[in-house]
Amino acid sequence: MVILGRHPDVGPVTVDQAATLAAGIHARGGTVVFTNGVFDLLHPGHIRYLQDARQLGDALIVGVNSDRSVRANKGRERPITPEAERVEILSALQWVDAVAVFDEDTPSEIIERIQPDVLVKGADWGPDNIVGRDTVEARGGRVVRMELSKGYSTTELIRKIKSLS
Asked: For residue 115, is it left (φ>0), alpha (ψ between -120 and 50) or beta?
């Protein structure tokens, strides 16, 4: 009998490592796709979003809000899932090439460092409210507002769970 242990190195790449990965892809003429979010309670809507985002380029880099950043944006009751676990789950998805945690309240700095060719956000974000749009478009990239899967929402999932208690 063989007992397999978890790989000890499952975790995020640093923002520097993500930027190096992106630079290497650019140097080979490839297209870097970037998206970001909390990804707190992963549901089918997240999976579909990430699958579709990955189809837009050669690599998908996901920026994940740190626990501190989530609390600053969503309140003290969030995140439900700690950042290390959110990163582990996202890193296990075949469509995700790298996951980097950012601690700022917005993804502006990480987008500036990675310089993606395609920036993906949900269609619930207005075009003028997408952080990093100016950075991406200034270098000839594009912003894609992705339709969200109806019936899937972390906020609604949390509400449902709370109603059961």
From this structure: left
pLDDT in tens, 12-61: 789 999 999 999 999 999 999 999 999 998 888 999 999 999 999 999 99
Residue type present at position 126: G
- The answer to whether the beta carbons of residues 41 and 85 sit under 8 Å apart is no
The rounded distance, in Å, linking the Cα atoms of 38 and 98 is 15
Q: Output the CATH code of domain 15-164.
A: 3.40.50.620
Strands, E assignment, the chain: 32-37, 59-65, 98-102, 118-122, 142-146
* 132-148 pLDDT per residue, tens: 999 999 999 999 998 88
Domain ranges of the chain: 15-164
> Residue 13 forms beta bridges with which residues?
100
Task: For residues 136 and 31, give the distance between their C-alpha atoms in angstroms, rounded to a whole number.
Answer: 12
User: Cα-flanking dihedrals φ and ψ of residue 10, to 5°?
Assistant: -70, 125
